[in-house]
TrEMBL record:
PROSITE patterns: ABC_TRANSPORTER_1, ABC_TRANSPORTER_2. Residues 12-248 form the ABC transporter domain. This is ATP-binding cassette domain-containing protein. Its main location: membrane. One of its GO terms (molecular function) is ATP binding. InterPro entries: AAA+_ATPase, ABC_transporter-like_ATP-bd, ABC_transporter-like_CS, P-loop_NTPase, Siderophore_ABC-ATPase. Coiled coil: none annotated. One of its GO terms (cellular component) is plasma membrane. It is found in: Cell membrane. It holds the Pfam family ABC_tran. It is a peripheral membrane protein.
Amino acid sequence: MSADDRHTLGKLAGQRVSIAYGEHRIVEDLDLVVPERRFTALIGPNGSGKSTILRTFAGLMSPASGTILLDGRSIDTLSTKDLAKRVGVLLQGPVAPEGLTVRDLVRQGRYPHRSLFARWSDEDQAACDEALMLTGTTTLADTPLDSLSGGQRQRAWIAMTLAQRGEVLLLDEPTTYLDLAHQIELMNLITVLVRDHGKTVVAVLHDINQAARYAEHIVILNNGRITAAGRPEDVISAEAIASVFGVRSVIIRDPVADTPLCIPL
């Protein structure tokens, strides 16, 4: 595959992907391209396949048919450890053992890079220190996870995925259960990771306006199919919101971010 072909495919891509639970097809014949070094948001009503697609792109589920590609190469050709070195994933409601500190959790992100009896290296330490710094959790390193607020805990889990030092970060509803201040904090962190550190981020989001303000690429899903994909201003419309969510709305410009702002009627 040529460099031009890989660029066309994007960083992460699905080609003719179908996903099923038993006999029940959730996603049918999906073609999805994730732009490199961009923030992509997956939005759509409940049951549209957003989380299922994310899990499949992370290699946690196998498609019934089709191929998931990373830099033009099928992820089936990568070992679990090799894939984890390149793709970090944070699912909904992660659970850690009682008493585990933030530092202990973040150190687990180095698992893909370590053999069974390998000594803790300077590179491992540097990766963890950087992950703590980027997420603003350095001062919380020795704090038990179960004593943190929801926003602090979410940042600690993201620090663990960053310690993997992968190019891709997949987040399943990362702002759910967070108050408004912590939601903004988390979305700003994603912006920094993409803009300043070259990460490719894909997140499942429920808030349309949040997706429009922060994401550079939006994929609207309905019944396991893509109804629109592109820049927020190209895909967020009253017609799309009515068709996919069954809600009448007016779309105006966000006076702060100059992005589409959906006002339900």
